[in-house]
Amino acid sequence: MVRKLEGKVALVSGAGRGIGRCIALKLADEGARVVVNDLDAGPAESVVTEIREAGGAAVTCVGSVTADDFAERFVKTALERFGGIDIIVNNAGYTWDNVIQKMSDEQWDAIVDCHLKAPFRILRAAQPYFREASKAEAEAGKEVFRKVVNISSISGTQGNAGQVNYASAKAGLMGMTKSLAKEWGRLRVNVNCVAFGAIDTRLTQSTTEEKTVSVEGREIKVGVHPDRIAAAGRDTPLGRFGTPEEAAGSVYLFCIPESNYVTGQTLICGGGRGGF
To answer: Which of 38, 55, 62, 118 has the fewest beta carbons closer than 10 A?
Structure first.
């Protein structure tokens, strides 16, 4: 069986858990060699082990996507270990919610830096490689397409109370997608975006308790009250939250050759919610 991403090199940020993990596993299963990023070494190494045990190739690039040196290190890892870059998935992120009158500058900056500035830096760092590779391929009479998939949210497409920081960053990421699709068309880089609706991850787990996860020394509330989950299910035409595997599938659609003539688009993966 011919795998659609055989020989490709993919960078996936935030790939140690949840949706990012499933994206990395899906791309690897289709033949891509994957650079797995996570804030924590343990989850990243676990995903690399899964990929290798299944016969694939993967390496880690551990650290915060907001670190000043991260973008160059992420790109350098792919070039030094696998010799190129074909796919970049900007997935890393989390939410830190509050209504605007209670939201601090720290909350605003942390979320915008993670969801908007970090993808900008990663793509900026990758541009020289894209430019030189495209030039060499054009001179050889070849047309090779590369893929960028930015991860947004229906909070970015339609807003969400209590998430002015997150919604603003995710809306900005869609603007970045459209702009780079125009800049990079000549380089044969497809730049698209997937906006997730309600996906079942550790951040949206059903709970009536106060739960937190640690993100760069901050304790961030996670979990959703069962009543809100039930309401979201009723508001979703498909009647439930999506799975991380389904979310990964929507990203995969933008990574395969069949999407070579699709760029600058936002696909809503929300079970019908936020898409009509």
So the answer is: 55
How far apart are the C-alpha atoms of 274 and 276, rounded to whole Å? 6
Q: Give me the helices (H) in the chain, please.
A: 18-29, 41-53, 70-82, 105-112, 118-139, 154-158, 164-184, 226-235, 244-253
The answer to whether 40 and 65 have CB atoms below 8 angstroms apart is no
CA distance 68 to 52: 30
Question: Among the options 94, 129, 166, 252, which is catalytic?
Answer: 166
Q: What are phi and psi of 270, to 5 degrees?
A: -140, 20
Please give the domain boundaries of the chain with CATH numbers for all domains. Answer: 9-200+243-269 (3.40.50.720)
Could you count the other beta carbons within 10 Å of the beta carbon of residue 176?
20
Spatial separation of the C-alpha atoms in residues 33 and 36, rounded to whole Å = 10
The reply to whether 129 belongs to the active site is no
Q: Rg for the chain (alpha carbons), in Å?
A: 18
Read off the tokens for 69.
Answer: 């040196």
Q: How many other CB atoms are found less than 10 A from the CB of residue 258?
A: 10
Read off the pLDDT of residues 55-92 as tens digits, 9 standing for 90 and up.
Answer: 999 999 999 999 999 999 999 999 999 999 999 999 99
